């Protein structure tokens, strides 16, 4: 159930921006967790390894969506409960 809520969260882009802003600006989140999140994002941006090339329109975008959801899932996993509750990610 949590996976589907988090997966849906990716497509509600207007909610993810305030969540990520609060995550990175919050003093409740450990610096190590923030650095891991930044590292995951940078690795994906610098090395955009595609299992399926993007020229296969819908199927090619699927692996990008899955990687983005895995990164977001790791960020959510490291987020304090109070922030998760505010964005209904529990």
SSE layout:
Blueprint: H1 2-11, H2 13-25, H3 31-46, H4 57-77, H5 81-86
Helix pairs in contact: 1-4, 3-4
3D structure, described in words:
With 90 residues, this protein is mainly alpha-helical. The protein has one domain (2-86). It is built from five helices and no strands. The protein has helices at 2-11, 13-25, 31-46, 57-77, 81-86. Helix 1 (2-11) crosses helix 4 (57-77) and helix 3 (31-46) packs antiparallel against helix 4. The longest helix has 21 residues, at 57-77. It is globular and about 40 Å long. 9% of the residues are buried.
In a few lines, what is going on in this structure?
The chain has about 90 residues and is mostly helical. It is built from five helices and no strands.
Q: Based on Cα principal axes, name the global outline.
A: globular
Q: Can you give the mean pLDDT?
A: 79
Oligomer: single chain
Helix content: over 70%
- Number of DSSP strands? 0
Which segments are poorly predicted (pLDDT under 50) over 5 or more consecutive residues? none
Order of helices and strands: HHHHH
* Largest β-sheet summary: none
What's the end-to-end separation, in Å?
A: 9 Å
Helix count, DSSP H or I runs of 4 or more residues: 5
């Amino acid at each position: 159930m949590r996976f589907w809520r988090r997966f849906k969260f990716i497509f509600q882009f207007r909610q993810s921006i305030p969540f990520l802003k609060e995550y990175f600006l919050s003093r409740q989140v450990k610096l190590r967790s923030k650095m891991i999140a930044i590292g995951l994002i940078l690795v994906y941006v610098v090395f955009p390894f595609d299992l399926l090339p993007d020229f296969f329109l819908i199927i090619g975008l699927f692996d990008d969506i899955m990687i983005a959801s895995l990164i977001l899932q790791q960020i959510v996993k490291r987020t304090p409960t109070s922030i998760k509750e505010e964005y209904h990610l529990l």
